[in-house]
Write a structure and sequence with these properties.
- The protein is an alpha+beta fold.
- It has 2 domains: 3-66 and 146-318, BirA Bifunctional Protein, domain 2 (2-Layer Sandwich), CATH 3.30.930; 350-441, Anticodon-binding domain (Rossmann fold, 3-Layer(aba) Sandwich), CATH 3.40.50.
- The protein has 13 helices and 23 strands.
- It has helices spanning 3-12, 34-53, 70-75, 77-80, 151-156, 158-165, 210-227, 275-284, 310-321, 363-372, 386-396, 408-411, 432-441; strands at residues 16-18, 30-32, 58-60, 82-87, 94-96, 124-127, 131-133, 143-145, 171-180, 195-205, 235-239, 251-259, 262-271, 290-292, 297-299, 302-309, 322-328, 335-341, 352-356, 378-380, 400-404, 413-418, 424-428.
- A 7-stranded mixed beta sheet has the order 3-9-10-16-13-12-11, with helices on both faces.
- A hairpin with a 2-residue loop joins strand 12 (251-259) and strand 13.
- Helix 2 (34-53) crosses helix 9.
- The protein is globular.
- The mean pLDDT is 92.
Length: 443
Amino acid sequence: MDMDKIVSLCKRRGLIFQSSEIYGGINGFWDFGPLGVELKKKLKESWWRHIVQMRHDVVGLDTSIIAHPQTWVASGHLANFTDPMVDCKKCKGRFREDQIDTDRCPEKPSKSPRECGGELTAPRQFNLMFKTYVGAVQDDSAVAYLRPETCQSIFTQFKNVSITSRKKIPFGIAQIGKSFRNEITPRNFIFRSREFEQMELEFFVKASDSPTWHAYWIQNQLDWFCGIGVGKEKLRIRPHRADELAHYAKACSDIEYEFPFGWSELEGIADRSDFDLTQHTKVSGKDLSYFDDETKQKFTPAVVEVSVGVDRTLLTLLCDAYHEELAPTAEAGESESRVVMRFHPSIAPITVAFLPLAKKIGAPLALVEQEFRKSLNTDFDEVGSIGKRYRRHDEIGTPFCVTYDFQSEQDQKVTVRHRDSMQQERVALDQLKPYLQKQLGNL
């Protein structure tokens, strides 16, 4: 399976479109279509429930995209958030110097920029933050930046949240939100974009407890990925070597997934020490320490960070769910190929599709679908032959299709088709809800 098949399916079935496509598109930006937005919403809801709603020691936050510029001075982004950039004088392409051997020349895609014969400029540092202006006058005093990560505003709001939530350490603050990085070379579909969403947790602990919590959150997140249907055999944990750790980190491990383009980072879990709160205390002049009522000690908490990209996780789900296989047809002994997205039912864009065999008998089933719509993502599909409708819902990962046929008018039963096995069962209409609830509960 290659990425071209995933990209094609996403456009064909309304999952993901290139942004501003009618104007030729804009590199590094993507729009999520009717089914893509449902998949993305369910993914975020699953993470939020797992990280926040099911725990007593984590609360949520939703901060602004633009923060005070001093935020990025304290975090080090203004001085250090850079990539080495080179230009090709021949093709005018622009590349990251540390990725030049894996990049492709735009004029000779079979060659890397180092092999195409063009002269490369000396590398220079390029800051990845998007600059903007706040206020009516565009001068140096009005400069601001779109946030390159969501975590810094969690640190600046640490004091307010700890006081108002009355949480005792250890506790965490979680956030889901947009971030922006002016990547030199966006790549691999939605894996590396210039606008993306992050799901981040900053878990505040005593420094002596950080190794224990670091190990805990690695396992916790690995379990979550498996719980939403990602194959365990395609996941691995890669601890960072000492020479690749960020200057503020005591330890860091990535959860990686084997994408069609190779093993790549899906999520980072880092022991960030007390660097962040210490830095914001220095630059702001405001005390961000924590007072422990039990021990009567005042200290600056260490932080264990859980950081995962929504878009990368969504791409993981797409790659992991995609299957091509031979399926039997209505003709005995014959088969045809089908594409099926084996999404876990909890995150599938549509959970149940209702398919009347003919439009003239669709009214009773439409009433049933309206009732199910109150609690599940459903679709009422009466366009095309029943075989084409089954294939369409296989391709978008719908776990169950419910068909109402001419016999249904007589016996008040429907046919339930299972996506993965393609097995069909006749179920009484008045038993359909408990039947589907049982099937979903067993998956």
